[in-house]
């Protein structure tokens, strides 16, 4: 840490988030105290504040978070720092075209995480020679030794096998570290890994290389003696340390709003899948701002992010089938507002990146995620491809806005809103083509639902989204032909949900609500509506949803089978007011 912060890295100590600074990611987030100590030595953190570590009113938390200006991404859920570092390095090399470098410190224990090796493969494939990963091989995990212990040769072979320029050093030897980090700067076309053999508690009698010291403070009765022992090893106690300043070659960010350069081109009644409308909108948004970038996990011909790639090939990142790393890379790309990042894959596959998404919220990330192929309406591909848990997943993320557009126009506006919304945004898109129901000039706002069908004699309020909104409209037509009117609501955003519109509509329809969703009951639209009307007397909610693990079949067959088609809605409506 001393070599990195006061010899190798170039940064402005009084301006940690300066765009030109070298980046540092403490992937082994439990080592936060040494990060805070480094910034205290640099003069940004008051030394006295270190004594408030982990206290309620102190921002020096147990693991680093971006509440601190010198932290770009939260770490501590191990294995994720390198992926985010890849996003920062890719952005520096290909988008900013700047000279800043990215350094990531990993623990040897977290190298058991598969996400580390997804990131290693990514960095090598894209020749991120501005990225350095330092593996702190101190042998010890939390509860016992790490699997390779001090076998630095095997670490070297693994890093080299993944295409990294690799050095093995004594992690306590300042000259060796200086040399390796200098050599890393000379290497072109490869990222560099520095495998540093270290001993936990080096130089501390009775602690060095001993088990069971993870996350534990030194006992008070031993502090003075150990401090005296350490201070006796300092050769130049009064030497002033100051980092080298960076090159001023990263452009300032343009924070102006990003707007679609033209309104949606669809006409009422046109048939378009919302997943395709996502691709159209993303490509258009790329025209409006150079900051917009897109990532995908080898599903671009299904999510339609390929339309962005075709229009803006230099701002598209193919992440291949490594969804955890894709999300981490997107988070890294979005740090310091350098880019407005959109990452897409099948919505079901975001479940394997849920921890990365959870950490993105702690990281205060503004990343945008688009999940296609939701629900049983995808049809024949079967349940492994059907997202039926995604609304529950994303609703549970504190900083997340959840969009569920139902036609081409609302999808384009959802993409536009995502680009200008703080926090994580998730867009749920569907595979089937559905009719355009909104004119191109329709206005959409987060948290504002659309009442798409209403009369003075509505008997029930029915809320559908995506495919089920169109099933609800078909049901409304059939019921109207039988003399029964229903009110139909398109929520547009599931979180925040427009509770006021839902409650007022329910009041106008005898307190009766039916929700219809291509999602499991748990955590979906129905439960969101139930939460919105909780405490409102006289309102009853009936939920139509997917009730079990589904199967392959034709989309309409599956909608019928699981009771979320127009036919089932008609039956439910009749049963509701009949009772």
Task: Record keyword descriptors for this entry.
579 residues; alpha/beta; seven-stranded mixed β-sheet; five-stranded parallel β-sheet; 34% helix; 17% strand
Provide an overview of this structure:
- There is one protein chain.
- This protein is α/β, with parallel strands linked by helices and 579 residues long.
- Helix content is 34%, strand content 17%.
- It has helices at 2-8, 32-42, 81-95, 114-125, 152-161, 174-186, 220-231, 274-288, 300-303, 306-311, 323-334, 354-362, 390-395, 408-419, 467-481, 499-508, 525-533, 555-561, 566-578, and strands spanning 23-26, 102-107, 131-137, 165-170, 192-197, 271-273, 292-296, 316-318, 340-346, 368-372, 401-403, 425-428, 433-435, 450-453, 458-464, 485-490, 493-495, 512-520, 540-546.
- The strands form four sheets. A seven-stranded mixed sheet has the order 8-7-9-10-12-11-17, with helices on both faces.
- β11, α14 (408-419) and β12 (425-428) form a beta-alpha-beta unit.
- It is elongated and about 90 Å long.
- The N and C termini lie far apart (71 Å).
Compose a concise summary of this entry.
By secondary structure, the chain is of the alpha/beta class. It is built from 19 helices and 19 strands. Strand 4, helix 6 and strand 5 form a beta-alpha-beta unit.
With strands numbered from the N-terminus, the spatial order across the biggest sheet is 8-7-9-10-12-11-17
* Structural class label: alpha/beta
What do the pLDDT scores average to? Answer: 97
Based on DSSP secondary structure assignment, what is the total number of beta strands?
Answer: 19
Main sheet record: 7 strands, mixed
């Amino acid at each position: 840490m001393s070599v990195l912060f006061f010899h190798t890295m170039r940064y402005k100590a009084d301006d940690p988030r300066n765009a030109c600074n070298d980046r540092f990611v403490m992937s082994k987030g439990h080592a936060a105290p040494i990060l805070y100590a480094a910034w205290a030595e640099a003069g940004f953190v008051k030394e006295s504040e270190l004594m408030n570590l982990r206290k309620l009113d102190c921002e020096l938390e147990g693991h680093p978070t971006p509440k601190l200006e010198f932290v770009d991404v939260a770490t501590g859920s191990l294995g994720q720092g390198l992926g985010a570092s890849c996003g920062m390095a890719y952005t520096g090399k290909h988008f900013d075209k700047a000279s800043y470098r990215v350094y990531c410190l990993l623990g040897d224990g977290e190298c058991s995480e598969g996400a580390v090796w997804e990131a290693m493969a990514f960095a090598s494939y894209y020749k991120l020679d501005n990225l350095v990963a330092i593996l702190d091989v101190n042998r010890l995990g939390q509860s016992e030794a790490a699997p390779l212990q001090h076998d630095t040769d095997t670490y070297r072979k693994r890093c080299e096998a993944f295409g990294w320029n690799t050095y093995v050093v004594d992690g306590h030897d300042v000259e060796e570290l200086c040399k390796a980090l200098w050599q890393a700067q000379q290497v072109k076309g490869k990222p560099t890994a520095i495998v540093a053999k270290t001993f936990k508690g080096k130089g501390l009698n009775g602690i060095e290389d001993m088990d069971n010291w993870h996350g534990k403070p030194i006992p008070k009765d031993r502090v003075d003696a150990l401090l005296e022992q350490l201070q006796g090893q300092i050769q130049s106690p009064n030497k002033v340390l100051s980092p080298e300043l960076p090159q001023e070659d990263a452009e300032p960010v343009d924070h102006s709003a990003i707007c679609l350069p033209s309104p949606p081109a669809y006409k009422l009644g046109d048939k378009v899948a919302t997943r395709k409308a996502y691709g159209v909108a993303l490509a258009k948004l790329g025209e409006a701002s150079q900051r917009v970038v897109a990532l995908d996990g080898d599903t671009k011909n299904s999510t339609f992010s390929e339309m962005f790639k075709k229009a803006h090939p230099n701002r598209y990142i193919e992440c291949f089938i490594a969804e955890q790393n894709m999300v981490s890379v997107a988070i890294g790309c979005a740090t310091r507002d350098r880019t407005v990042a959109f990452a897409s894959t099948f919505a079901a596959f975001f479940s394997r990146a849920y921890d990365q998404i959870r950490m993105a919220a702690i990281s205060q990330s503004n990343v945008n995620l688009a999940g296609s192929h939701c629900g049983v309406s995808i049809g024949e591909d079967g349940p492994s491809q059907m997202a039926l848990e995604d609304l529950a997943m994303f609703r549970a993320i504190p900083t997340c806005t959840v969009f569920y557009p139902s036609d081409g126009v609302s999808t384009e506006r959802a993409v536009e809103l995502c680009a200008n919304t703080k926090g994580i945004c998730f867009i749920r898109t569907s595979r089937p083509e559905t009719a355009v129901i909104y004119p191109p000039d329709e206005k959409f706002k987060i948290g504002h639902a659309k009442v798409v069908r209403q009369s003075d004699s509505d008997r029930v309020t029915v809320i559908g989204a995506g495919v089920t909104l169109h099933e609800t409209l078909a049901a409304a037509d059939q019921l109207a032909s039988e003399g029964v009117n229903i009110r139909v609501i398109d929520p547009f955003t599931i979180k925040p949900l427009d509770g006021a519109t839902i409650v007022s509509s329910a009041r106008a329809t005898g307190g009766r609500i039916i929700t219809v969703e291509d999602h499991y009951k748990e955590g979906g639209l129905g439960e969101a509506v139930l939460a919105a009307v909780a405490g409102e007397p006289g309102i009853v909610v009936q939920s139509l949803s997917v009730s079990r693990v589904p199967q392959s079949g034709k989309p309409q067959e599956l909608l019928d089978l699981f009771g979320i088609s127009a036919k089932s809605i008609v039956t439910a409506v009749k049963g509701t007011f009949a009772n």
